[in-house]
Amino acid sequence: MPAVQNLNLKVNEGEFAAIVGPSGCGKSTLMKLATGLQFPREGAVIVGGRQVGAPVKLAGMAFQNPTMLPWRTTLDNILLPLEIVEPHRSRLRRHKAEYVAKAESLLAQVGLKGQGHKFPWQLSGGMQQRASLCRALIHEPKLLMLDEPFGALDSFTREELWCVMRDLHAAQKVTIILVTHDLREAAFLADRIFCMSARPGRIVAERRVEFPRPRDLDITYTPEFSELVHELRGHIAQARQAA
Amino acid sequence: MPAVQNLNLKVNEGEFAAIVGPSGCGKSTLMKLATGLQFPREGAVIVGGRQVGAPVKLAGMAFQNPTMLPWRTTLDNILLPLEIVEPHRSRLRRHKAEYVAKAESLLAQVGLKGQGHKFPWQLSGGMQQRASLCRALIHEPKLLMLDEPFGALDSFTREELWCVMRDLHAAQKVTIILVTHDLREAAFLADRIFCMSARPGRIVAERRVEFPRPRDLDITYTPEFSELVHELRGHIAQARQAA
Amino acid sequence: QTPVRFSLDWRWEGPAAPFAVALDKGYFKAEGLDVTIDPAAGSREPISRVASGTYDVGFGDVNSLVRFRDENPGTGIKAVMVIYDRPPFAIIGRKSRGITKEVSSLQGKKFGAPAADGAYAQWPIFKTVNKIDDSSMRFENVGFPVREPMLAQGEVDAVFGFSMSSYINLKSRGVPADDIVVLPMSDYGVDLYGNTIIVSQKFAQEKPEAVKGLLRAIMKGVQDTVKDPSSAVDAVIKRNDVAKKDVELERLRMVLEQNMITPWVKENGFGGIDKARFAKALDQIGLTFTYKAKPGVEDVFTDQFLPAADQRKVN
Amino acid sequence: MKTRNQLVFAPWVFTIGFFVLWEVLCRVLKISSFILPAPSTILWAVWEYRSQLTYHAFHTLWMTLAGFGLAVGFGLLLGMLLGSSRLVNAGTYPLLVGFNSIPKVAVVPILVFWFGVGWVPPVLTAFLISFFPIVVNVATGIATVEPEMEDVLRALGASKRDIVFKVGVPRAMPYFFGSLKVAITLAYVGSVIGEQNASNVGIGNLLTRASAAFEVPLVWAALVVLAVLGVIMYAVTAYAERSMTGWAQRSQMAA
Amino acid sequence: MKTRNQLVFAPWVFTIGFFVLWEVLCRVLKISSFILPAPSTILWAVWEYRSQLTYHAFHTLWMTLAGFGLAVGFGLLLGMLLGSSRLVNAGTYPLLVGFNSIPKVAVVPILVFWFGVGWVPPVLTAFLISFFPIVVNVATGIATVEPEMEDVLRALGASKRDIVFKVGVPRAMPYFFGSLKVAITLAYVGSVIGEQNASNVGIGNLLTRASAAFEVPLVWAALVVLAVLGVIMYAVTAYAERSMTGWAQRSQMAA
Ligand SMILES: Nc1ncnc2c1ncn2[C@@H]1O[C@H](COP(=O)(O)OP(=O)(O)OP(=O)(O)O)[C@@H](O)[C@H]1O
Ligand SMILES: Nc1ncnc2c1ncn2[C@@H]1O[C@H](COP(=O)(O)OP(=O)(O)OP(=O)(O)O)[C@@H](O)[C@H]1O
Ligand SMILES: [Mg+2]
Ligand SMILES: [Mg+2]
């Protein structure tokens, strides 16, 4: 049985989209298909009107597992995209210090100040996940694909990072696609939320989020917010039942 | 700087303890020290009045990362503890079918019915985590150490598994130590909650949870419950500030 | 039946015909011996094999035996029967490269001289006896497989080798027979003996009758081979599935003529030694290395196991 | 499934291409057949001596398999020991490396002293020459197991032996199979060396006799037979590898 | 830090123990010195011939290093190619395996024909004999990279070359260093074979001359020198390994 089927999902440029759905419904698969990391056994993936044949360039991606390269320090792991993506690639050698400073400031933003010299396996699970987020951001991609980037974090750290993402989105107008199982997270951050169901993975609901931006953490305590989360819960409950 | 220091933590037999704390504060390290998987660079670890010298036997452990062995199917991964721990070890060959049936029923309980033949890398992140939980349970250990076992799950699946854990604890009177960053989870499941702070990791607060057992999911909507969660939030907020 | 392990000096090729004949015609069996014959990789190998006790009897180079005994005193292995009255050591050159039968033609030439070669090992004798100054000559350590091909290609002017192998190999490489010049060292004052039958001390002391029987059987094999080389070679071909009869027969004929059935053998019978010549050989061996303790003739060779003189006639 | 077909044909294309190139070079450069015979000459020799070659090849195959079998068993055991004990590792590696820096040709005569000419020296030479790569790779494979995987078992109070068998060895399988490719070729070399100096049969023995008789095409025919035997054994190993370490071969890089 | 000390002493203890055992066995079993000389005899010969041994050993060392260097470079490149292309892998493995099943002794004569007697044949033999383990291990290392690691780079639109260099090669380093231990010992064997057949200097040449002259203790002295050279090279490699693949050696099994 295919993991995802007949799945249609439209995200505008500069939009912040969130995908929610029960565990195992095909969210990660969707992300990998969309970026061309996996190829469909049958059928085709169309992005921007064109069939995806090779990994799309210029996406920043944070995987569900942090998968840092164990032979590089955290800092070197974060600098990795710069060694690949132009124009940084050709600039990296000469402007090393500048880029390192940028990586350090990103680390500081996610609460890992001064941990760059450690190897990934010397970091805690949540720290690795945050470092992996830094890696997705360092080259300032136009499209960010985040697969449960805050799954291993406590609520405080998580909320801090929400704000970091919110500000980043506001400042740079990047397109962000966020996979999450935290409905509050989706409601707080996204412009549009897609609910997926399992076996085969399909979009069962699409919901625009109309809260004005910039949003403050306080809105998560408003009744409208609770209502939205409740509505999403309903969709997911349905999606699970269907499976 | 040591990851944890002067840490004293008393869990009674048959108790359900939860440990909460900000990311990177030393929760996983604590678990590993207590089970003898890591040895302290300095000082000693005392469990049950005796210094820990080798990994303690008869503990069931679910790690923060599922770390399934990639060369075994999910089912074989789950059966692994039986190949090690007596008395199952000597019984396994003759009673194979019985044990497989047990593993299958565990899989069904966590919502992975019929997925046993798949290899771990064919499962989604949340599914791996659930399989790893099955592995911790299969040999019915007297002590369960769970390190963020529900981190990658959506709230519905998570709540289902809360109930599974609750029933298991009620039925078998195992001692459970649960690390989590979800305060509602801790409040719903635990008899006693420990809050940790970072750098070095210490217990900053200990809180008994007095809700009567058996608890229903409904209690999570009571004001007492919200109050407890709020109190815990306060401890963690303090713990983070201190760092 | 007394079991006897016998080590040849080399593969099953023409020169091993006497032993093959003795096996096939049951001469060993008739003496009450159950002989197994194994090949070896060179005429030095049987010496250490016999000395180690793995083999009872070997067919190997007596000059190496002298040297071996000097290096390892107390092993007590001895030569009991001479097979090659003259050693096959030779310098093989090409007329077209200026090599002639004259020793002086060797001056300033380039030689293919395998480090492990038995012929090259006698160079110090050759050079001393013929008063050659070899400072202008170049000796290249080439492996056995390339020795003759390099000569055929003209990479070297001459090689050290055994007359019967190198000559035949060169011919099969397409070098015309009249371009090949063979300088057998024994024609140039090198008075050594060649391969002999060697027995271990243990075997000789514990089973002297078996040794005598063995030599009688070999003697018969030699006589049969001399009489009918062609059918003797068949016994070899049977044991070597890549050997070609005409080649092996030619090789055997050369060995018989040049090394085994020499004028001295025709006159005095096969298998024995001329004590004076043997003593001289011991002196000459002293030119190739320094004795720790120079042996006497009796130490190296004993004729006590040889068949009676009248049984050792070969013509 | 175009790529599947390509994968099946690739070995043939490459191999045949290689031989064609060799043939052409031999003809164009007029390389004389006693330096490097053209494949056609060698093929002809293979045909001419087919019965001898078959007979000796089977003997060599047996010697090699016996030696290789010993090497696999011993190599796995020693590799497990070295991989799981830093002390034994530090202690014995120098000896092992030292022993392996010694050309095995030098060891064959000793084997003859002890066991005489026969099947023992080739088998032992094949064994001695081929066990080392297996030891090194298995040891490396076990020593580089991710501690996270070990912890799964250690948390259960598993003995070190259990950990080595349940995690170390399976994790080391890709390493092990890698080493088998090296070991099987070395085992052939070993049994041939053994046969050259201490046997009355076998390709090694045939080789020396052929080269002593300057039958260069036959020498090469024997070498080609050796190579073919090696490739067959490799194919068997590769098949076993695919079926046993499929879990490790998921990389898409090798596409 | 008791274990640290143990690790430093272990090689010495094992090695000295081994030689003592050898000495005792030789004396008790009265093994004659032309079969297997006792270590004391060998040591004496080493001392007696120290100047020749040093001279020839340096020559061999150079030959070996040159051949080994070539093998490392070529092996890495070919291994990367084979590990990253299934097609090339399927196509060339049979050829490589076939070539490696051929005893290199048989190849030396060809080298002598083409390059004459001198330094080229030993270097090339060392190269030819030692590159294969490197190729196999590097290829295996690259082919078994976890796809999750590749994805990190593939998501950035990295070219295959980038992926091979940034993920494949570092991931294959433990495999690579494992193979070096095998390759260095083979390289010694190769240069010795080359020297035996095509050189006027070097340990290989010394070996043949000594064994032709029944100087068995000198033969063994030369072999011991070879072994010591091999161990020294191994120590250098092991040092490089420790400093470059520390990340992979975190296993606690090897305690
Ligand atoms: N490599 C693979 N081979 C075969 N099946 C796979 C593979 N990867 C994923 N699947 C299957 O596809 C389905 C969807 O998996 P996916 O990882 O996309 O889920 P998900 O929505 O990300 O779940 P989670 O929230 O638990 O991470 C699952 O049923 C899983 O078993
Ligand atoms: N192997 C290691 N070597 C060195 N330092 C380590 C190692 N493992 C963990 N640490 C450090 O110990 C501290 C605590 O790590 P730990 O994994 O216990 O955190 P945690 O509480 O589990 O965090 P999280 O909630 O993010 O999983 C961190 O600062 C981390 O950098
Ligand atoms: Mg997922
Ligand atoms: Mg943790």
UniProtKB/TrEMBL annotation, chains A, B:
Belongs to the ABC transporter superfamily. SMART domains: AAA. GO terms for molecular function: ATP binding. Residues 1-223 form the ABC transporter domain. Keywords: ATP-binding, Nucleotide-binding, Transport. This is ATP-binding cassette domain-containing protein. It comes from the Bacteria. PANTHER family: ALIPHATIC SULFONATES IMPORT ATP-BINDING PROTEIN SSUB (PTHR42788:SF13), TAURINE IMPORT ATP-BINDING PROTEIN-RELATED (PTHR42788). Coiled coil: none annotated.
UniProtKB/TrEMBL annotation, chains D, E:
Residues 57-237 form the ABC transmembrane type-1 domain. Gene3D superfamilies: MetI-like. Belongs to the binding-protein-dependent transport system permease family. CDD domains: TM_PBP2. This is ABC transporter permease subunit. Keywords: Cell membrane, Membrane, Transmembrane, Transmembrane helix, Transport. InterPro entries: MetI-like, MetI-like_sf.
